[in-house]
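Supplementary material to the annual report.
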Amino acid sequence: MSMMLNEDQEMLREAAAGFLNENAPVSAFRELRDSNSIGGFSRDLWSEMAQMGWAGILVPEEFGGSEFGMVGAGLIAEEMGKHLTASPFLATSVLAATAFSKFGSEAQKEHHLPKISAGETLYALAVDEGAKHAPAKTALKAERSGNGFKLSGAKTFVANGHVADHIIVAARTSGEAGDENGITLFLVEAETAGLKRSASKMVDSSSFARLQFEDVEVNADAVIGEVDAGYEPLDTILNAGRACLAAEMTGCADQSFNMTVAYINERKQFGVPVGSFQALQHRAAHLHTEIELAKAVTLAALQSLDTEEESAWRLTALAKTKVGQVALLAAQEGVQMHGGMGMTDAFDIGLYLKRVRVAGELFGDESWHANRIADALSF
Amino acid sequence: MSELETFRIQTRAWLEENCPPDMRDGAVSEATQCWGGRNWTFTSEGQKLWLERMAAKGWTVPTWPEDYGGAGLTKDEAEILQDEMTAIGARKPHDNFGITMLGPALLKFGTQEQKLEHLPPIARGELRWCQGYSEPGAGSDLASLRTKAEDKGDHYIVNGQKIWTSYADQADWIFCLVRTDFEAAKHKGISFVLFDMATKGVTTKPIKLISGSSPFCETFFDDVRVEKVNLVHEENKGWDVAKYLLTHERGMIGEVFGNMTGGRSLGEIAAHEIGVDDAGRVEEPLLRAKLVQAEIDSLAFSTLLQSVSERAEAGESLGAVSSVLKYYGTELNKRRHELLMEIGGSDELEWSDENDNGQRSKDWLRTKGNSIEGGTSEVQLQIIAKHILQMPGA
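Predicted assembly:
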């Protein structure tokens, strides 16, 4: 497993950085936020990203994708993290693309993967039902009914859930909340009767949704994978998302840090730049060290997912934990080192603090993943 | 089968046949190291055989050229050798500052004669080296050192004092920083010389540490004659060598501490020694949380080491990255040893009893020096702030 990028990946990174710098700088994110856009992202921008192959980054070429793999997806996510780019990339191009390409039936692949690549259809993944991530605790019930199933229950913290055309739902077909067995993945059209969606603006201005299912009927062919055996596929799908979130947070950490160092090198007090004080220099040097670790674990996780190594899930958990911690530290230190300016809305540093708080919570926070690692190491 | 796979199979077979049984316990503590040299007493026949066999193969310094006692292995092959040694719990056959510090410096700056004279005895474990850097008035500010070398034509006469010279009382030779120009700016009047510790005028005095052991000495030079053939690199350019060596040393210290678990995770040790609850978890939840954080940081650190080593191999210049590794690796190692003490409880507080020599507590105390020697953590942070972040006035 290589810890270096190849030439194609380097080019993708440069292209992504160049495009986002020009078309989706932080000022664009501010405009979106201040316009109270319901979608929370620009559809035009998403179309352009799709044209560049980003929407289908994980989709096989035969379905119109660019098939760049997880390292490629992570590079884009990292650049988006630096620019705070709002887009359906995670929900549609990482989570849904992974679900269909790895676990979809031929018919599902043929129908959905080209739409993902084209950027014309939006997807969401509905997993959690409480405030803390707990996929095994899925309680939303799916009962057999006629030729299909009837879904009842509630989901929360669903990225793009209010604008998605299709929603992948983790539901319980047998057993009890807490069991890993008995979970099934369903594909539900957003306009199906009985599905109510309410949008929530989060602290970072991103858009999530709460979903209410009341006897929502789906056909048997809405099942993704096998009935009752959805937990492991779900974990695989989530791991793709977690690794991309780690990559995004690495971008956030990197950008927070660079902005902060630039600021303290400029800001003068007592007649000198405050960055000339050792008290700040050593904290900056420590942060640099932590960010180097974050970059390394992120790449290790992405590479291991691409090569499907046995350790992939553990490296992903490692990345979600470590990068979550580092990104939060970088943003917190960033606010502190910006002094009073760090508390103002006019400066960008606070936007990063808010973003990493949300990205860190999504699909398992640092403690959840740390606990998982400890369990796996048998202590 | 690829050449590397063949190499792996042959290596595995050779190790299986040649590594003595008592050298397979995976031990990495100071008590089990084999330092070699003129005065070394082997702790067992196995230790002696292991050094001889590995040296004959060139595997005490696997990546050095064969002419200098190595095996000329590529980095990939050396990694395989290390993997296979780890797999059977093989101890390192030989530790020597000649391998980790002087060797790389001589390979870069030494003349062909110097390499041929000094490197093979290091590879064979015949001469043990020590490092003469710090002085009572030159610690973090190393370049202000004042040990004086007077030019006497074909030789120098050296006078002065070093401190924190690791194992000077047991070493055969020293690589030493001396001042050859008192007029020049402090970095520009330093030279790098080699001499035999048995030379007239060299005396050493061990310093007793909080761990009870005395790995460091005060070293005194009183009119010591040093031949000029033993000047490495040019006169007054010793700081280049010193910096190169320190960079290398820091990278190495970081790496050593990145892999100090000896194969067992802290969590496993805790589960074994403290016990687990019905869910298989260490009974003390706060301790468990600290242990998993240490594991996470260790795992993260080892991915960084891998990344840095690949970047170095691809030709990227390391520079101050070694300070990143040294800083994080040593702080992590201190944290691990604090946790080992916490896991061990009162059992490990016994300094000496019939069953144990109190090694864990001695190792714990020793680790406090990790973030001081080779440049303190604060010095490393300053190097990062200056050379990587280029902060004003750093």
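The first helix of chain A runs from residue 7 to 23.
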